Amino acid sequence: MVKPEGQEPEQFNPQPQQTLVTPSEIILQTRQQFSTYIHVLATLLVLPFALLQFSQGNMLLTLAILVFALYNSVVAYVLFKHQHYLFNGWGLVLLSSGLVLYSCTLNGLIGLLWAYPAIATYFLLLPLRQATIGALIFFSAVTTIAMLTQDPTIAIRLVATQLLCIGFAVMFSWLLTAQQRKLVSIATTDPLTGCSNRLELNAALEESTYSRHRYQIPSSLIILDLDHFKQVNDSIGHTEGDRLLKALAKLLTSRLRVSDKLFRYGGEEFIALLPNTRLIDAHTLAEALRTGVEDGKFQLSASKLKPPQRITISAGVAEINAGEGWENWLMRADEALYQAKHQGRNIVVVSPNLSPKPVSLG
Ligand SMILES: Nc1nc2c(ncn2[C@@H]2O[C@H](COP(=O)(O)OP(=O)(O)OP(=O)(O)O)[C@@H](O)[C@H]2O)c(=O)[nH]1
Fold first, then answer.
1. Which residues of the chain have a pLDDT value below 50?
2. In 3-state terms, the chain is what percent helix, strand and coil (to 5)?
3. Which cofactors, by name (predicted)?
4. How far does the centroid of ligand 1 lie from the alpha carbon of residue 97, in Å?
5. Which of 240, 268, 293, 337 to mutate to test ligand 1, by most ligand atoms within 8 A of the CB atom?
6. Residue 224 Cα, ligand 1 centroid: separation in angstroms?
7. What does the alpha-carbon distance between residue 102 and residue 125 come to, in Å, rounded to a whole number?
8. For 215-247, how does the pLDDT look when each residue is reduced to its tens digit (9 = 90+)?
9. What pLDDT sits at residue 330?
10. pTM for this entry
């Protein structure tokens, strides 16, 4: 194994991981907040109409509206207090649709007017596909009542305007979902290499830790770092350094399985998360990655290096232990990488299972 001459590695000092909020979590929190407002609004909005129906002697409709208001206030409370969304919005949607249909049979055209806000609730509270299917079923029911109870000139206009409403709501909801997806992708992808960034890492590590503790599915980590990258940058410039990072990410990705995930952890540091992989296999892979970088093809991208210097990587490998948290798992892999740097670089060090001290196998 070639161990390049060089200065001591900077003291590796793994920091306790602060919990990073992922874009998906932010979207979920915002949705829950928004849903809480909708349920509060629905509660307050229908109360005057309960009074109105009461004054007109429609006791059953009054009772139904009060049940609707009570349901919405309970959902809003549970959502606000416990961040748990009862029936995921379906309760409000189905209850309001039922109320509108009942009101249509009772109050004719006036009841039919409430179909518009009821259609809106599908798209405000449900995922696009569910909202579209639900809204179309509701629309069919309203259309049937309109055709049976209204003058055809009015019924046709009601049908046409409701269909337009559904069409616009689908377009708006699709636009929002597509924008959200793109923004999440931008926020979680490293623009230089196309790898996932560390915002995604925490969630992926949590998932692997859960699989280990719940289903005894093993997972391993490889943390790898370009050796003497500062010198490389100083020698060939940052633009060429960037090209090298991109080439490294491409090489690593080509060697990993589809189920593996590659993250850019820091400047010249990458993490490969290998689900369903034992330590021994992760070590074999890390060695393959190390020699893959060391071999001639990859060196071409650094041919301008002055003085001539081989491009190499060092790596630390760790498999998650039973009962271990992901922060400790990550720290063991970090420590193994530090050992690799300390022992001369271009080396793979494995952190053994159930032992706090890493040992060199490379
Ligand atoms: N070109 C380029 N360089 C980067 C990027 N991010 C970090 N770097 C550089 O990576 C270098 C990292 O230097 P060090 O942390 O000293 O590590 P090193 O020189 O690789 O030394 P060892 O890791 O100990 O082998 C610094 O010069 C950073 O400027 C990037 O996105 N592009």
1. 1-7, 9-17, 355-362
2. 65, 10, 25
3. Mg(2+)
4. 60
5. 268
6. 13
7. 22
8. 999 999 999 999 999 988 888 889 989 999 999
9. 96
10. 0.74
